[in-house]
Specification:
This protein has about 400 residues and is α/β, with parallel strands linked by helices. It contains 15 helices and 14 strands.
Length: about 400
């Protein structure tokens, strides 16, 4: 079997353009789909896919480790998030092909199941951009969280830490306390809450007062309390142990994860299959994390193929704790890709179809062509005009 063609397909989903990757072969009826979505880098990633395609056409798609070596080594330049997202999209499609060729679901090829279902969590508004990133009042936080819980989810993530520079203000600390007091009272103690700091505090000194406030509300974990490159800052907050620290969505490949894991920079690692290098590279990250006693809550606010890839990965990976999903990002989420399972709120069951088990509707993709994604950064500016982390 040989690869004959690799094609990126762009599908606009509001805040994101999903980049869906089709890999075709010379075997009749055997092709694979992956995903390479990267916010605000759509044209760069699709160009990178097209640049990588000549390295792959004519090779056997089932030799996945060799394909990774080829894509990572034969381009000479080491790849950042743009290149690795392109690689990931192709790599995921190769697993789909391998599973189809063997009439086996991908999770079996990864060693078989380690659980009977995968726990998942969602965001406010089920991932609607306005709800996720613009819930900044007590009443809107309470109302949107109650909507999610009423649907059956028992875990929710919120993004409501204020845009912050190197020090946090007393007013922002008090406001955060008020918001989470209201939230916990509204949804009770049986629901897990995760808080995404989004790397907004520029220092440990800015992040620590927020963590001190949140510690009284039984938070499952806080995510990216400082910028992702600040390994030492993450390690300090993790060692203090007030709330479990999660991070890693913006670390690329096992070589960026290695120093963070060695430093015990977080309690929960959050690699993104679509950015870290695909399924196999993320398995390598997971194995290193497991050795260090670190669990995984894989990052995934992306499209439907990324979600299915995360499902197969999570079923087969023992140290996955919970899986992020945003299946409510757009009303027509299920029009583009048919999943191999019927999703339940907070729970994804084991799929049994060959490969990823998906059916992709290329006409539905074409109905949502590329649109420049909006930049949600208008408020990420200090009172003095300084640029803050979004």
């Amino acid at each position: 079997m040989k690869i004959t063609k690799i094609t990126p397909h762009i599908c606009n989903a509001g805040m994101r353009n999903w980049i869906l990757v089709k890999v075709e072969t010379d075997e009749p009826g055997i092709f694979g789909w992956g995903e390479a979505t990267l916010e605000w880098k759509t044209r760069a990633v699709t160009g990178a896919i097209e640049d990588l395609a000549p390295l792959m056409v004519g090779t056997d798609p089932r030799d996945i480790e060799q394909a990774m070596q080829r894509m990572l080594r034969h381009g000479f330049w080491r790849l950042g998030v743009v290149g690795m997202s392109a690689v990931s999209g192709i790599e995921i499609a190769l697993w789909d092909i391998l599973g189809k060729s063997l009439n086996t679901p991908v999770w079996r090829l990864l060693g078989g199941k380690t659980r009977d279902h995968l726990r998942s969590y969602t965001h406010l508004g089920l991932g609607n951009q306005q709800a996720v990133y613009n819930t900044d009042t007590v009443s809107s936080l309470r109302d949107r969280a109650e909507e999610v819980i009423e649907l059956g989810y028992d875990a929710v993530k919120v993004v409501c830490v204020p845009y912050t520079h190197y020090l946090s203000s007393q007013s922002s600390i008090r406001e955060l306390d008020k918001m989470f007091s209201t939230l916990r009272d509204a949804i009770g103690n049986q629901v897990d809450i995760m808080v995404d700091f989004h790397g907004r505090p520029a220092s440990v000194a800015a992040a620590r007062p927020y963590i001190d406030v949140l510690a009284q509300y039984g938070i499952m974990f806080v995510e990216e309390p400082v910028p992702p490159e600040d390994i030492a800052g993450h390690a300090v907050l993790t060692a203090e142990g007030k709330i479990p620290i999660a991070s890693g969505e913006r670390l690329i490949g096992r070589r960026e994860f290695e120093p963070a894991i060695r430093a015990r920079a977080f309690d929960i690692a959050q690699p993104d299959i679509v950015h870290a290098g695909g399924i196999w590279e993320t398995r390598k990250i997971a194995a290193r994390a497991e050795t260090a006693g670190i669990g995984l809550a894989p990052h995934n606010p992306l499209g439907p193929i990324a979600g299915v890839a995360a499902l197969h990965f999570g079923i087969a990976t023992p140290n996955v704790v919970i899986q992020e999903e945003m299946v409510g990002a757009v009303p027509w989420y299920d029009d583009v890709v048919s999943w191999p399972i019927k999703r339940k709120p907070g729970r994804w069951d084991v799929p049994h179809e060959p490969g990823l088990g998906i059916v992709v509707d290329e006409k539905a993709i074409a109905a949502h062509p590329f649109v420049q994604e909006p930049f949600a950064t208008a408020d990420a500016v200090g009172a003095d005009g300084s640029i803050l982390d979004w």
